[in-house]
Amino acid sequence: MKKLIVQKYGGSSVANEQRIINVAKRIIEYKKKGYKVVVVVSALGDTTDELIKLAYSINKEPPEREMDMLLATGEQVSIALLAMAIHRLGFEAISFTGQQGGIITDRTHTKARIIKINARRIKEELNKDKIVIVAGFQGITKEEDITTLGRGGSDLTAVALAKVLKADFCEIYSDVEGIYTADPRIVPNAKKIDCISYDEMLEMASLGAQIMQARSVEVAKKFNVIIHTRSSFSKKRGTIIYKGGKKKMEDVVVRAVTLTKNEAKITICDVPDKPGLAAKIFSSISQGGINVDMIVQNTSRNRITDISFTVQKDNLNKALRITNEISKKIGAGEVFAESNIARVSIVGVGMRSHPGVAAKMFEALADKNINIEMISTSDISISCIIKKKYIVAAARAIHDKFGLGGKK
Amino acid sequence: MKKLIVQKYGGSSVANEQRIINVAKRIIEYKKKGYKVVVVVSALGDTTDELIKLAYSINKEPPEREMDMLLATGEQVSIALLAMAIHRLGFEAISFTGQQGGIITDRTHTKARIIKINARRIKEELNKDKIVIVAGFQGITKEEDITTLGRGGSDLTAVALAKVLKADFCEIYSDVEGIYTADPRIVPNAKKIDCISYDEMLEMASLGAQIMQARSVEVAKKFNVIIHTRSSFSKKRGTIIYKGGKKKMEDVVVRAVTLTKNEAKITICDVPDKPGLAAKIFSSISQGGINVDMIVQNTSRNRITDISFTVQKDNLNKALRITNEISKKIGAGEVFAESNIARVSIVGVGMRSHPGVAAKMFEALADKNINIEMISTSDISISCIIKKKYIVAAARAIHDKFGLGGKK
């Protein structure tokens, strides 16, 4: 039986006509080698951001169903153009929207979850020897409403398809050559990592490494889909993401430094120190469909306390509105928002069993006179919220402190 | 029971954010008056042309299924943004793609025909008191492939919906105030026509008046849908298109001058003068899905003849390829194409019963020293193919000759 490969190309890989042609050529190489090829594509270049901007210029709180209707067009353009490019090179390809690809999701617009994939049409066309191109990032509810899977959702489409189609492997193409010990644009001596475990990748993805969407790594882990993340601009081997070899993991304490700038902090002042109020606040916010990330509650003085938490910047307006309402309801004080913040994190399975890692990270920041506003830790990561303007200095200092850099 | 209105807004009516908001306001006016409102929208501004250009930059003969996949995104953007604009103004709206609107078509990609409309979801949402916005120009086959209805197909969507929903009337909004005796950008003293018959409108539309797509006028005629074509930038009454009052029609001989520049001429030289060859040529071309418009065959000399015909410029490459093949097969000579041509036409039901109309038109051209390359006539129109560079002079001369102009 023919081997089957799922390839996903990110927006920068198809940002202009020449790049689309190049991607078509790379796809055809695999086809010529005898593979069945399923391709998942993102929207061209910055299309999604431009569409979001357009939406906000018309309505500052656009209905989410309509937002999905709008955003799904980005990938629909890509799949059509890529199919045209493949045809031009003399091979047969057919493009599918999320709906046509059978990607059934729940109804959580703008961050829907895949319920199942009816891959009937995809399989039919593969059996006709066609290259099948599926729009990433989008799906359809049972009621036939268009949904999107959230930022980086095309990765999820690719991994889920790899699972359902029993692909031999899943390649995730972007404009970088793999996973690095830090973002090389920010930390110039960052090194490429050859292999990384799902758990570490998961932590990195959720902490700002923009190579892979966190949910897609979760799904890959769950179904043991081996991912090769690599560059569409070179033939070099990238980074393999897999369940991980234990031995190797223990050698290294900290694997990478990540950062994120898309969070904002909300503080509710003077929350009465009564049981159940925190629960009330955060259940209201989560009912609004907003994920809260870090939460910090200061020790109470005079039976009142301040509660701070971070949310994605996209959700700041909505979160603020909800927080203001709930604050009034529970008799708390003013609500402040701050969006000039950033998060710097270190990730590594090894750090579990090594004491002093956190202290070393805080030292690196202290050495540069950078104040820490919030701290959060997990099994395999430590994150600090700092002022946004210090983020580059912070990332470099920590990367150096743990000796992650290459020689060059 | 509430009155139901179908409104269609063309690309220029929604070309930017402010215009989208203005359209939303106009829609809400009708909603406030108690109407059920169904809105059909075209792609923003020149989106469709830009998408076509993009496609051709990648593949000079893009597969038509993929072309439809690409073009359908234009209207999907419009419906989402318009729904967002209506929400911002405090009213409930829901957008539907062609598929969601139940617009089922045949499989003739890029110029599909509507087979039926399953208006279930539209009716459901109207009954929930929502404004329903449907993407114009697009539909879906039974196999769930996306199709488009051809240039101006949004008009067809609107008229077909007006029929199926038993709308009280159908408004077609564009950037002009109605139907004119000639394109006012070309013939400055052109006058607005208050009422016009389906037949005259049909002829004008197929002869280049860009207000209404010909097929949508056909459908309107078939089902007696009364159309009000008007400007989205003013409150003025536009032109009513209806079955026509006979008396009024006979008063006027020529109603309007139209022109079109999107045709190209193909000539096959030295076609053997044998029965059946013309049929062979034109059945091959129509099997390629290409509509031929004018056909001229010169008197044969030495048992060979030249055959010329016109096709839409979009189809020129494909038509040329087919024509070259068939020419070889039937032993004809060289094939030439000319795209520097234009067509000027006069339209009017009255001309049937008035002799000398054609002569008067040819005189107007002769007065300006304009050579006629091809002539075609119908019951209610006469068309001449001339060099493109003379088209403005020709339109003005004919408009004057028949005294169609206003005073100003």
Annotate the secondary structure layout.
Two copies of one chain form a homodimer.
Chain A: E1 4-9, H1 17-32, E2 36-41, H2 47-58, H3 64-88, E3 93-96, E4 103-105, E5 114-117, H4 120-127, E6 131-135, E7 138-140, E8 146-148, H5 153-164, E9 169-174, E10 179-180, E11 192-193, E12 195-197, H6 198-206, H7 214-223, E13 227-231, E14 239-242, H8 246-251, E15 256-260, E16 263-272, H9 277-287, E17 292-297, E18 304-312, H10 316-329, E19 335-338, E20 341-347, H11 357-367, E21 374-378, E22 381-387, H12 391-401
Parallel strand pairs in A: 1-2, 1-9, 2-6, 3-6, 9-13, 12-14
Antiparallel strand pairs in A: 4-5, 7-8, 10-11, 13-14, 15-20, 16-18, 16-19, 17-18, 20-22, 21-22
Task: Explain briefly what this protein structure is.
In chain A, 36% of the residues lie in helices and 27% in strands.
Oligomer: homodimer
> Count the helices of chain A. How many?
12
CATH topology of the domain at 4-175 in chain A: Carbamate kinase
Trace the largest sheet of chain A across and list its strands. Answer: 3-6-2-1-9-13-14-12
Give the chain pair forming the largest contact, with residue counts. Answer: A-B, 37 and 37 residues
Shape of chain A: globular
Rg on CA atoms of chain A, Å: 22 Å
How many beta-strand segments of chain A? 22
Distance between the termini of chain A: 45 Å
Secondary-structure-derived class of chain A: alpha/beta
What is the CATH architecture assignment of the domain at 4-175 in chain A?
3-Layer(aba) Sandwich
- Largest sheet geometry of chain A: 8 strands, mixed
What's the overall average pLDDT of chain A, rounded?
90
Which regions of chain A are unreliable across 5 or more consecutive residues at pLDDT < 50? none
Helix content of chain A: 25-40%
